[in-house]
Design a protein that fits this description.
single chain; 379 residues; alpha+beta; four-stranded antiparallel sheet; 27% helix
Length: 379
């Protein structure tokens, strides 16, 4: 999608971010800018797709959308996970209408049939055209990666593979006590939030707002800035470390581990996913971007292998009523109203508590304009 001249000065945007400001308020409310971000950021980035329980057996298929693009994930008879654009190569109809288990992928429109590996196996009346080669018309593939109990997807085959996208993060987490391989899906909940995806991202990657908006969280985490650590882990991921207060002994998804500091560890994987843990299980918070002013937020808890079903049910109830998430939903909704008014001033942020916002906004500018172009213009 072409970039309108009214917001196509990457050098000015980089200078603005470097000087302590965020992107202009119209970047949070303009449908044209949202469409460009969708195409140039989200359709080229890695997103949490689902948990491996949705593709547990050969023949399992799972459908969803990423950045407005329908996809289907499959597990073939050899146990391999594949991902494809869920659009028939014939006339544009979805091939798979709903998740489930099936031996083949059958488009109900004209009967074109694909294998679980995406190859076209049958096209009715295809033998009437001698120019037609079924080998050329398999489903369009996407990148997938299985990381423990998580399945990730990227629409862009030319994008860096997932291990490069999060380079160093898995080792970083293992050093702090988390091996994702030792966990399975526990429970989840979803919220529709009327805000831009960057409103949510900007909010959740800093804890500057925690003392004033999250009283429950602030009673169990240390809010003194000198006790908190915030850092860029890699180009596409960041992390926080915040100690728990001495009186807090744990909860369903947090626990003290002998010989280890009792900390809350938080990571954001650009552009739409956080991963957090604190001694027992880990959580994923994943965004589906829907419009310039709407996201669907899904919070998924992965629990240690062997966790009793009744504990997962208890956790599901607690998650649906989580006060901190409710407060963030309300906060993001109110912030979006300010951007939608067209009168919100450009945000002025501080280096110490909010530099991670600046880091990711530089990445957004680079991806929107092309990194070489954006950096050359900034010289």
């Amino acid at each position: 999608m072409p970039i309108s001249p009214r917001f196509s000065d990457p050098a000015a945007l980089h200078r603005q971010i470097d000087s302590g400001f965020l992107l202009p308020t119209r970047w949070y409310a303009d449908p044209e800018i949202f469409a460009v971000e969708r195409d140039r950021v989200h359709r080229r980035a890695w997103h949490f797709a689902t948990h491996s329980g949705d593709l547990a057996k050969p023949g399992d298929v799972y459908v969803r959308n990423i950045a407005g693009v329908p996809i289907v994930l499959t597990r073939d008879n050899n146990g391999e996970v594949h991902g494809f654009i869920n659009i028939c190569r014939h006339r544009g109809h979805p091939v798979v209408m709903e998740s489930g288990n099936r031996p083949k992928l059958h488009c109900m429109f004209h009967g074109w049939t694909y294998g679980l590996d995406g190859t076209l196996q049958h096209a009715p009346r295809g033998n009437t055209d001698e120019r037609f080669d079924p080998a050329e018309f398999g489903l369009v593939p996407i990148q997938t990666h299985v990381w423990g109990p998580m399945i990730w997807a990227n629409l862009d085959l030319s994008a860096p593979p997932f291990p490069a996208w999060i380079e160093g993060m898995d080792a970083f987490m293992r050093e702090r006590g988390l091996n994702v391989e030792e966990h399975a899906y526990g429970f989840d909940h979803e919220w529709d939030i009327p805000c831009n995806w960057k409103v949510f991202q900007d909010n959740t990657i800093e804890c500057y707002h925690c003392p004033t908006t999250h009283p429950e969280l602030s009673r169990v985490l240390e809010m003194k800035p000198e006790l908190q650590k915030f850092a860029v882990g890699g180009r596409y991921w960041i992390h926080h470390t915040i100690p728990f207060r001495g009186h807090f002994n744990g909860s369903l998804t947090t626990q003290r581990v002998a010989g280890r500091p009792f900390n809350y560890y938080y990571h954001w994987i650009f552009p739409t996913t956080y991963l957090q843990y604190s001694g027992k299980g880990f959580d994923i918070g994943a965004l589906d971007i829907i419009a310039e002013d709407k996201i669907r937020f899904r919070h998924i808890c992965f629990m240690p292998l062997g966790t009793p079903a009744e504990l997962n049910e208890q956790g599901k109830t607690q998650l649906a009523n989580d006060a901190t998430i409710r407060q963030d939903v309300e906060l993001c909704t109110r912030v979006q109203r300010g951007h939608a008014s067209g009168m919100a001033p450009t945000a002025r942020v501080f280096p110490q508590p909010e530099f991670l916002l600046s880091h990711f906004q530089h990445v957004i500018v680079d991806m929107v304009f092309g990194e070489d172009e954006a950096r050359a213009a900034a010289q």
